[in-house]
Amino acid sequence: MNWRTKARLVKRKKNISKMKARETERSMKKIEEKNKTASFEIIFIGRSNVGKSTILNEITGEKLRTGKRPGVTLKPTHLYFDDLLVTDMPGFGFMNGVTEEKTEEVKTGIVRYIEDHKDRIKIAVLVIDGAAFEQIVKRWDERDEIPIDIELFSFITEFGISPIVAINKVDRIEKDAYDEKIDTIKKYYNEYNQNGKNVAFSPISAKRKETEALVKALRNELHVLKRNDLFKFFK
Ligand SMILES: Nc1nc2c(ncn2[C@@H]2O[C@H](COP(=O)(O)OP(=O)(O)O)[C@@H](O)[C@H]2O)c(=O)[nH]1
Ligand SMILES: [Mg+2]
Predict the structure, then answer these.
(1) Do 181 and 133 meet the contact criterion of CB atoms below 8 Å apart?
(2) Residue 98 has pLDDT above 70, yes or no
C-alpha cells in the first residue's frame, strides 16, 4: 500500500469516527433477538442499484424487492437458512436527492453492524457495477478520496472476513473492453486489501441469470470454512 492510499484511508477513518460520535443510538434489538440463533453470517454490501437484491433472488431463490428507488432505510434485510443468516445491507450513494450526510450515515451503520457482529460474519460479498466502476473511481479520485465501497472493502479485510467482490452487470461491458476493465477493478481493490488473504473476484450478470462465478466463489469460501452443509442454499 503506497503513502497516498494510506493517507486516504486515514482521512476516511477520521470521517467514520466523526459520524460515529454524531450518530444517534439506533435500536436493532428486536431483530437481534431473532438473529441470535444464527452463528454464520454472509453480508452483501454495495451501492444502491448495483443489483444486490437481484443477485440474492437469483442465487437463493428468495423474493426480495428489486429495482425500486432506494429509500433511506438504514435497516438491513435478513434471509434465514438454518443457522445461516444472509444479510442485504442498505445501499449507499447513487440516491438522487439524498444528501452526502445520509450516505455517510448509511456507511456508519454498516461499519457499526460489522463491528458488532464480527464474530458471526464470515463472508462479505461486495457487489459493484462493473460497467460504472471507472467513472465512480474517477469522480472520487478527483476529490482525492476513495469510493465508499472500496473503503468498506478495506475495512472488511482488516477484520479477517473473507471478501468476495461480485462484479455485476458485466452484460453492459463491451466485449473488447472486458478483460482490461476486469483487470483494472482487480488491481484497484487489491491495493486496498489489508490482509494477506486472496480476494475472490466474480464477474456476473444477475439480469441474465449468469451468477455461477459468484456461487462458485461462495462455495469455495464455505468449503474453506468447513461449512459444505450450506452449499444447498445457493444455486
Ligand atoms: N444490465 C443489468 N442490470 C441489472 C443486473 N442486475 C441487476 N440489474 C438491474 O439493476 C437495477 C437495480 O437492481 P437491484 O437488485 O434492485 O439493486 P440493489 O439496489 O443493489 O438491490 C434493477 O433494475 C435490475 O434489474 C445486471 O446484471 N445487468
Ligand atoms: Mg436492494
Answers:
(1) yes
(2) no
